[in-house]
Design brief:
The structure holds two protein chains of two kinds. By secondary structure, chain A is α/β, with parallel strands linked by helices. Chain A folds into two domains: about 120 residues, Response regulator (Rossmann fold), CATH 3.40.50; about 70 residues, no CATH class. Chain A has nine helices and seven strands; from the N terminus they run βαβααβααβαβββααα. In chain A, the strands form two sheets. A four-stranded parallel β-sheet of chain A has the order 3-2-4-5, sandwiched between helices. Chain A has a three-stranded antiparallel β-sheet with strand order 1-6-7. The longest helix of chain A has 17 residues. Chain B is about 40% helix and about 15% strand. The chains are: A alpha/beta, B alpha/beta. Chains A and B meet through helix 8 of A and helix 5 and helix 6 of B.
């Protein structure tokens, strides 16, 4: 899933500066799971803004709404059935960067600003902890690396083995973190597939990762081409 | 030392090399003076490439000066700051200036340097860079296009005999050799036991190995201890030994390490580095018997 973090409150306050009425728009999927931008976080942010601004005699009216997904037009269209967007000076979105952009496309006559910094594609390690696992490079090497991604887990994205900084199996960049290539070595050894690590992996085909990327499902190609 | 670095390496003689960092500025006068002191003392002079991610002058300018001063340069090329186009074009440019020896490295992460918000490139890694450089020598670029004129390059790579665990490091070193590395320069070594284990794995390989030795600076104990220099693992026992000592004692320790490594007859030479105290390199080598 996509993992995001809320921007510093001071920055968010600056983003809504000059507004009289805003909509804090939450997203009920990835950012809700990572406790950054779901219904509860929207309520918390709205309350924080109300309290902080009251102390400054700043009269700001804040409405709250959380939809299922901001990265899907089908759900964004529901917004107009629940609130009148034209009443707001600004929409403060707590979605990931993708969601913020689609809401901005749909309501292109209103400023839509991001309350979160979108951070990575990752997994939940435990309550309140998420780690990055995928750089969405469009050229997956996981089959050769024991299911551990060196492009993501190694800070240098090295695909042919470790740098010279591994110490006690930890990464030179952050000694709190495991060296990706120690993890890969141990996993491949356990799987009896260490021979995979002996092969020189060719340079990545970054051309597979065209920005901005588009994926059209095979079944829909005729419709869009 | 009239013979080239490549010829010296194949001669069977025990060699000495060192590395210097280019200046953080546009003036090469200080380095010119240092080169005079190193001339005739070392068989090759490594010139770092934004060492540790610290922005400095590009190494080719220092390498060109070294050539003019009669010291054979070994230009470091890091994959951290350039994509495959820039790396290949810089290899060709440096070769056109007469620079022949290249140390192909992935590069320390930018977090250790002075531009921590820079985007690390790492389009390709050191194994790919060696492959690409070998391809250039054979007249082809990475996209298989023919070159108008192929360069002459002598390629090397780095290795850390003290990496822990060692096995993945050895597998990477093997790839570097297969990709085209004719010589290895190791990270500074403090454990003879680990060095022996490392060299044992390379005994069937034709690759030449220059073992790293670092002149420690007592003023930098805290940085050594907290991992401020990537790949430099100074044992606590050594740190305690240099605590409160002067640079003179550290120089003696570096010379003793040179002597011990030479005496062990394990490798093809030493690569002595003395950041901030490069003028002591001739003294270290002389006292070390090289």
């Amino acid at each position: 899933m996509i993992v995001a973090k809320r921007k510093p409150f001071k920055e968010i306050k600056g983003l809504v500066s000059g507004s009289k009425k805003i909509l804090v728009l939450g997203c009920g999927t990835c950012v809700a799971v990572c406790l950054a931008g779901g219904e509860k976080e929207v309520a918390l942010l709205a309350s924080q803004l109300k309290m902080a601004l009251a102390l400054e005699d700043w009269d700001l009216e804040i409405d709250e709404l959380t939809i299922e997904r901001q990265c899907d037009r089908e759900f964004i269209e529901e917004i107009n059935q629940k609130v009148n967007v034209d009443e707001y000076d600004l929409i403060l979105s707590t979605a990931c960067g993708a969601g913020v952009q689609l809401v901005s496309d749909v309501f292109d006559h209103k400023p839509v600003v991001a309350a979160l910094n979108t951070t990575f594609i990752g997994v939940a390690e435990g309550p309140g902890v998420w780690t990055e696992r995928c750089r969405s490079c469009s050229d997956c090497v996981l089959a050769e690396t024991g299911g551990i991604c060196p492009v993501t887990i190694c800070p240098k994205g090295l695909v042919n083995g470790p740098c010279g900084g591994t110490r006690n199996g930890k990464c030179e960049v952050d000694p709190e973190k495991d060296c990706a290539w120690t993890l890969i070595y141990n996993r491949l050894k356990k799987l009896g597939r260490l021979d995979r690590m002996k092969e020189i992996v060719p340079p990545k085909k970054w051309s597979a990762q065209q920005h901005p990327a588009t994926v059209i499902h095979e079944a829909y190609k005729r419709r869009y081409e | 030392m009239a013979t080239s670095f490549e010829e010296a390496l194949t001669s069977g003689k025990f060699l000495a090399t060192t590395s210097v960092d280019p200046p953080k500025g546009a003036d090469l006068e200080g380095l010119g003076q240092l080169l005079q002191k190193l001339k005739g003392v070392v068989h090759g002079l490594g010139v770092s490439d934004n060492h540790q991610g610290i922005m400095c002058m590009s190494p080719w300018a220092v390498c060109k000066l070294a050539l003019e001063e009669g010291v054979e340069p070994i230009m470091h090329m890091t994959c951290r700051d350039r994509n495959r186009l820039a790396l290949q074009s810089d290899l060709l440019a440096a070769a056109s200036l007469g620079i022949k020896n290249f140390l192909c490295v992935s590069g320390d992460h930018v977090r250790f340097g002075d531009h921590i918000n820079a985007k690390p490139v790492h389009d390709i890694d050191s194994v790919h860079l060696l492959t690409a450089a070998k391809g250039l020598v054979e007249g082809k670029d990475m996209a298989d296009n023919a070159l108008e004129a192929a360069p002459t390059l002598f390629l090397g790579a780095v290795a850390n005999p003290e990496a822990d665990p060692l096995e993945p490091q050895l597998m990477k070193v093997d790839k570097k050799i297969r990709a085209g590395a004719s010589f290895l320069i190791t990270h500074p070594v403090f454990s003879m036991e680990k060095l022996k284990k490392f060299m044992e794995q390379l005994k069937k390989s034709p690759v030449k190995v220059l073992v790293g030795i670092r002149l420690l600076d007592p003023e930098e104990i805290a940085t050594y201890r907290n991992g401020g220099y990537p790949g430099l693992f100074v044992p606590e026992k050594v740190l305690e030994e240099i605590q409160g000592a002067g640079i003179g004692k550290c120089t003696e320790m570096a010379a003793a390490a040179v002597q011990e490594i030479k005496g062990a007859n394990l490798c093809d030479g030493v690569h002595v580095v003395a950041p901030g105290h490069e003028e002591r390199i001739p003294e270290i080598l002389k006292a070390g018997g090289v």
